[in-house]
């Protein structure tokens, strides 16, 4: 009888472990860490997020950059400070400028594949995205291990079927041309943002 109970207990423990391993963790607020590269320079980003907005920070040479955005593409600001030069600059986009940027985004269709791999501890599967405007294709790696607010995920990936972990991000460059950078999410936590992190400080 004791052996039977032990067998049942072990079975329950194993089932609980499997369920725990496969459980999708949902975040409504927290911190993402990401890596990318631009102009030959490796960049690490820290992006605090809430359900309605994001605030990403990174360093580029001597400059510290903060990007502020809302989930509805109604507000976008770039704050740059160069402590060594005692300089602070801010660029707050108008709604027309934001709409112009959004109109340059790709329009994707998605084709999930059977290929899988782990990236930064996330179980990922491959999706091929085809831009219907240009017919160019891009490899996207997504996960269903986590669930993030819509504010965190680029608008053109909204219907991809998971959270993009390794993916190209599209932005409009100063000359109006589309700039593509590949991002990789390296971690996520429910760490809350510092006070007033989603606002620009005085001096900008």
Labels describing this entry:
204 residues, 2 helices, eleven-stranded antiparallel sheet, disordered N terminus
Give the arrangement of secondary structure elements.
Blueprint: H1 2-22, E1 25-26, E2 30-38, E3 41-49, E4 53-60, E5 63-70, E6 76-82, E7 87-92, H2 95-103, E8 108-119, E9 122-131, E10 137-143, E11 146-147, E12 163-172, E13 178-189
Parallel strand pairs: 1-11
Antiparallel strand pairs: 2-3, 2-13, 3-4, 4-5, 5-6, 6-7, 8-9, 9-10, 10-12, 12-13
Describe this structure in words.
- This protein is mainly beta and 204 residues long.
- Helices cover 15% and strands 50% of the residues.
- The chain contains two helices and 13 strands; from the N terminus they run αβββββββαββββββ.
- The strands form two sheets. An eleven-stranded antiparallel β-sheet has the order 7-6-5-4-3-2-13-12-10-9-8, with no helix packed on it. The chain has a two-stranded parallel sheet with strand order 1-11.
- β12 (163-172) and β13 form a beta hairpin.
- The model is unreliable at 1-21 (pLDDT under 50).
């Amino acid at each position: 009888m004791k052996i039977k109970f032990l067998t049942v207990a072990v079975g329950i423990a194993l089932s609980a472990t499997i369920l725990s391993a496969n459980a999708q963790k949902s975040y409504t607020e927290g911190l993402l860490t990401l890596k990318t590269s631009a102009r030959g320079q490796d960049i690490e980003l820290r992006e605090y997020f809430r359900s309605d907005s994001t605030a990403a920070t990174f360093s580029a040479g001597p400059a510290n950059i903060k990007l502020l955005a809302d989930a509805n593409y109604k507000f976008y600001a770039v704050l740059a400070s160069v402590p060594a030069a005692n300089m602070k600059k801010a660029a707050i986009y108008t709604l027309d400028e934001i709409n112009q940027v959004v109109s340059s985004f790709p329009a994707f269709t998605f084709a999930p594949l059977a290929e899988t791999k782990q990236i930064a501890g996330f179980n990922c599967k491959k999706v091929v995205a085809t831009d219907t405007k240009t017919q160019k294709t891009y490899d996207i790696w997504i996960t269903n291990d986590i669930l993030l607010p819509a504010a965190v995920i680029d608008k053109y990936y909204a219907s991809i079927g998971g959270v993009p972990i390794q993916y190209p991000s599209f932005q409009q460059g100063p000359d109006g041309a589309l700039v593509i950078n590949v991002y990789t999410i390296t971690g996520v936590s429910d760490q809350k943002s510092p006070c007033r992190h989603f606002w620009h400080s005085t001096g900008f």
